[in-house]
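Um, can you check?
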Amino acid sequence: MANTVTTTSPAHPYSPAYAVAGFGFVSGALSVDVDGHAVEGVEPALDAAVARLTERLATIDMALTDVVKTTYFVTDVATRDAANKHYERIFDAPRPARSFVEVAALPYGATVEIEAIAHRP
């Protein structure tokens, strides 16, 4: 796979997704709807963050099945149990490695942000 960088913007000067040498690196995908509004509720927020992650992966011709590592940033560590159940639903075993980090706040009022590393040999 050649180097691939998705579009940046003045408000977001980084690459939402970048592919090189069979790896895909995805910047944090927030729990927002397609219009950029924060999604309320734990399960809907997790679903929204995964939807945004999936969209970003698609820009570099990758999918959730290619993900090998994720980092979840959440505004409430108490979402961990729900996130674990959600992880089991969206990823087949063996599931990607994952870090889970509580943060004070996320952009746009989001409650979940997921970044990922994907690989396709």
